[in-house]
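Design request, tokens follow.
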């Protein structure tokens, strides 16, 4: 076979392979990317709880040869990419945590599937941008609460959260340690941890604190939250036989409940719930 014929044959082969490759390549445009994103979201919404993590795992690992065109150099960008951008998969992961968390009413917490999502997100979130990674980290913190994995929640808080102050992290750690101590019936430690948390709640940083329970619409002021915790302190003190401390905690709780009533005066639903708790505490 002549050299000229070999070169001609090679050129034809390259052209054919290039054409086949181009046909198998997904060509991205602005419209196609938006359509793909909408379809992925639709597929995500249709997943059953047990299908969510496998769907995200496949979405993050399955890659296709894709090409996009530009009016500037380089005019063609190509390579193996996922169906949608990694950060969008990260946003879906964050949404998945919310979905599996239930609503404290008719939809229970799905602990089994939360654990699977926690395992997936632990490594996946490192591929995301810092903003999305931090968003997932906060969702993971809430998830660890929901599955009662308090030690893992503490590890996240000890590492710090960009959108939370060191004081907030310290106060939240104290709140978690209270639950750990309560489960162990270590009433002295439980009492001390609540005192640390209450000190944070009454600091200037929390002066405008309000927490609305999305499932009930009830709005909790910081005085209401601290008063509830003081009643818990009273219970811890009672377990230890510290009668004087019990009276002291209840007296402080009563003072804060009065302030909480003033703050809730224009919110009849919250006020009714607050007064119900005050009556139950015999204050």
């Amino acid at each position: 076979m002549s050299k000229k014929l070999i070169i001609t044959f090679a050129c034809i082969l390259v052209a054919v392979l290039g054409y086949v490759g181009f046909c198998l390549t997904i060509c991205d445009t602005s419209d196609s990317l938006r359509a793909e994103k909408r379809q992925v979201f639709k597929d995500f919404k249709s997943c059953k709880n047990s299908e969510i993590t496998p769907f995200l795992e496949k979405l993050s690992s399955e890659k296709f040869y894709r090409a996009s065109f530009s009016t500037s150099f380089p005019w063609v960008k190509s390579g193996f990419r996922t169906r949608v951008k990694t950060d969008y998969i990260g946003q879906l992961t964050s949404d998945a945590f919310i979905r599996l968390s239930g609503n404290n009413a008719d939809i229970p917490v799905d602990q089994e599937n939360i654990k699977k999502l926690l395992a997936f997100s632990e490594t996946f979130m490192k591929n995301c941008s810092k903003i999305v990674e931090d968003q997932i980290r906060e969702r993971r913190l809430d998830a660890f609460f929901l599955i009662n994995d308090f030690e893992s929640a503490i590890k996240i808080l000890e590492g710090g959260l960009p959108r939370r102050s060191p004081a907030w992290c310290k106060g939240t750690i104290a709140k978690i340690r209270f639950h750990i101590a309560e489960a162990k019936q270590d009433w002295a430690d439980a009492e001390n941890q609540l005192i640390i948390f209450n000190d944070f709640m009454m600091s200037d940083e929390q002066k405008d604190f309000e927490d609305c329970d999305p499932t009930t619409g009830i709005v909790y002021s910081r005085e209401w939250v601290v008063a509830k915790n003081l009643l818990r302190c009273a219970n811890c003190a009672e377990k230890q036989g510290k009668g004087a401390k019990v009276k002291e905690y209840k007296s402080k709780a009563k003072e804060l409940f009065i302030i909480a009533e003033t703050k809730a005066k224009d919110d009849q639903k919250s006020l009714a719930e607050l007064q119900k708790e005050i009556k139950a505490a015999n204050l």
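Comment from the thread starter after seeing the answer: thanks! The domain at 165-283 is CATH 1.25.40 (Serine Threonine Protein Phosphatase 5, Tetratricopeptide repeat).
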